Amino acid sequence: MISAKLALKSGEIFEGQVPDRQQGEFFGEVVFNTSMVGYPEAMTDPSYRGQILAFTYPLIGNYGVPDPSTWESDKIQVAGIVISEAAEHYTHRDAQKSITDWCVENNVPIMSGVDTRTLAKTLSHQGVVPGVITTEKTLPKTFVDINDDNLVAAVSIDAPVTTGSGKYTVIAIDCGMKNNIMRNLNALPLTVKRVPYNYDFTEEDYDALFISNGPGDPAMCDETVAILKKAMTSKKPIFGICLGAQLMARAIGATTYKLPFGHRAQNHPCLDETTKRCYLTSQNHGFAIDEESLPAQWTVRFRNLNDNTVQGIWHNDLPFFAVQFHPEHAPGPVDTTWLFDEFYNTICEHTT
After folding, report:
1. Host H or E run for residue 226
2. Among 12, 30, 67, 258, which one has the highest count of C-beta atoms within 10 angstroms of its own C-beta?
3. What CA–CA distance (Å, rounded) separates 329 from 183?
């Protein structure tokens, strides 16, 4: 291990170490996650594309890295990880390697020995900022802001892929879709056509539309929003998750804004306004829907009880709905997986 620095654009510097094979500069937006487990799923979640992820739990890697079949994509998506202590001696029957070896093999910096408590407090007070993990003696003069680009283009699939053979056909827009979303959709009696973020399907024969999670600023996804606007005129059922909720909001004329430090954890309490029942949810996003900008025919169904932000929107008359949290979990609680059944039931009710 060799000495390294995590430098924030705002001027703060945190000391730590990286493996000697990971020398140089690694840029990204520095964010934090308060989860105790689920690091393989988080690190492979396309929604983290371009971000340096700091885990606040002090020990990461103690159950190693499991088989790729449990990952949320086919590779590590984060631009780097920052932890207090990396567990080199892991213990789990399904583990295949240590978290350090995994990062080194994929040329993803893993920085340990960092005061992640102070880092998280810094980010929660001033907001997330661009940063760099570096072994260089001189710090960079400029930092890369990942939200200036359309990150969805980097994580979406290149061509349509169809799975399942159900009676109803669902178009699933891949904006950086987690694997467990596809697992949940494929568990239903559906035919799922997974398409790229900029694929215009509006002239095709389908029964419902799904919009996935993904990274970055929804304002960068104008192509997807334009397609959504066309699709909504057909009044077919639509279900969106995370970025999908933000894109749906923008398609109906609402606006989105950047949260100070985002929601990234597995224990966010969300209230269902229709039943007054609270659910624990898994979340990973840095932007939110502006409630005041929603058209009159839309209702906020879910709210985050930590800060009252919008967590779910439903159309009053049409079969359109979306949630900001992750009902597919992986990692996290399974409290809201019933939303996939609600989507299927909505398709059955509105399709002849």
Report:
1. helix 222-232
2. 30
3. 11
Contact call for residues 176 and 215 (beta carbons, < 8 A): yes
Tokens 């969106």 found at: 240
Task: Tell the burial category of 142 from Cβ atoms under 10 Å away from its Cβ (0-12, 13-18, 19+).
Answer: exposed
User: 0.90 exceeded by the pTM?
Assistant: yes
Which residues in the chain come in under a pLDDT of 50? none
Q: What angle do CA 130, 131, 134 make, to 5 degrees?
A: 160
The residue assigned the tokens 């993904």 is: 214
* Those residues with Cβ within 8 angstroms of residue 111's Cβ, 6 or more apart along the chain or in another chain: 4, 6, 16, 17, 18, 80, 81, 82, 83, 133
Tell me what pLDDT residue 88 has. Answer: 86
Closest CA to 215 of 131, 127, 129, 152: 152
pLDDT at residue number 153: 97
pLDDT at 35: 95
- Mean pLDDT, all residues of the chain: 97
pLDDT of residue 80: 98
Three-point CA angle 4, 6, 11, nearest 5°: 130
Residue written as tokens 């400029």? 142
What is d(CA 7, CA 27) in angstroms, rounded to the nearest whole number? 10
Strand order in the sheet with 277-289: 161-163, 190-196, 168-174, 208-211, 238-241, 320-323, 310-315, 298-304, 256-272, 277-289
Active site residues: 242, 326, 328
Helix (H) or strand (E) holding 102: helix 99-105
In the prediction, which pLDDT does 352 show? 72
**8-state DSSP, 149:** S
**H or E element, residue 228:** helix 222-232
Q: What angle do CA 168, 172, 177 make, to 5 degrees?
A: 140
Burial status of residue 253 (CB atoms within 10 A of its CB: 0-12, 13-18, 19 or more)? exposed
Distance CA 83, CA 86 (A): 7
